[in-house]
Automatic annotation (TrEMBL):
This is Ammonium transporter. GO terms for cellular component: plasma membrane. Residues 61-450 form the Ammonium transporter AmtB-like domain. The chain crosses the membrane at residues 57-77, 98-117, 155-174, 181-200, 220-239, 251-273, 285-312, 319-338, 344-361, 373-392, 398-423. It is a multi-pass membrane protein. One of its GO terms (biological process) is ammonium homeostasis. One of its GO terms (molecular function) is ammonium channel activity.
Amino acid sequence: MSKLLRAPLLTGLVFAGALCLGAVFTPEVMAQAEEAVAESAYSSEEYVASDGYAVFAVNNLWICISAALVFIMHLGFTTLEAGLTQKKNAVNIIFKNVWIVCTGILLYAMWGFNAMYPGDFNGYFAMGSWFGASLNDVSMTTADYNAGYTWWGDFIFQAMFAATAATIVSGAVAERVKLPTFMLFSTLLVGFAYPIIGSWKWGGGWLDQMGFYDFAGSSIVHAFGGFAALACVLLLGPRTGKYTESGIKPIVGHSMPLAVIGVFLLWLGWFGFNGGSALSADPKAVSYVFVTTSLAAAAGAISSIVGSYVLLKKPDVSMALNGILAGLVGITAGADTVGEESSIVIGAIAGLLVVVAILGFDKIKIDDPVGAISVHGVCGIWGTVAVGIFSMDASHSFVTQLIGTLAIGGFAFAFSAIVFGILKVTLGVRVSLEEETLGLDISEHGMAAYNGFETA
């Protein structure tokens, strides 16, 4: 499409959208909506005065706060990915992450929520539907739905999780993937693949029936995203100039301060990611999960610092940052069921694993600019099987944990390889050498992230 036509077309679309909204949100419709809310369960004096209302209100508030903390993680992913890549691709990173979180929320509402939590289904696949419910239905707005949250509190918390898998892929394919191709792939991954594997455990599916345990998503979220990223990177290939006849040429990120901000935002968000997964404001459960989460993150950082110093003969700050994330991913599956000492061991092993994995992938020419495959894929598997080793619950089996994480990772890899492979032979997945050299900010978006900057 000609660049001269883009602006008028976009303007027309915005205008048409405004007309549609004007037609829908008429004064009469708004008045009816306000009346419905006024007559809804929220105004039930009898329920508000009941003994259980205060507990229910606090629980639901914590779930909503946790959803907000998980939302902050998307800002963390954006700044981390931007900081660890070249400045000529920063706008592209930002755009992809905006697309992912917005489409993720909408698709989860339209199909994913009711596909992921079907309850009674065949255990493998459930048809989803629009998530909406009536404000007048007390079974959705009170503890009749759940002691910890309303229907909408449940939805918004889970919706924040849904977009994370594609965000993981975004970092791994950075600096050389075609934007329209990635947008389509991420839509399919978040909209359809993620709810399917989520239903296997959190929706009462076959993994849940066999006793698989994943408290907050070491496999369901992180290993899923990591192995989806691996499939895409294998099909996409490395960045130009990364691997040469004389060896590996580092392509250095442009802003370590941005990367540090991203990691600490992610650590903050993980308090909602793991703490919210207690599904209530229970003081014991939430505070304990906060502690195991932080212990694992700190141990991951220290072990990655030591490991990188031994292997690289220098204290590598990017490895330290990925060590924090490795510890967080590692503890996510069992944050509520392993001891404090065990959380340190799990985080420390994850920190070492991420160093070895990043260096190992580089040696076999799998180019991952931010280490996403290592952090989320490798450490996601480790955190899941660690439950079978360290859990205080004797029913958690190592074999079951291994089967579960391999099934989830395998599905993510196969789905991504097929979908991304089809896109490769149809739309193409990689930008041209000229566009890659110029930078995706200019070639894909026609703008630079930093004033006065156009090329690397």
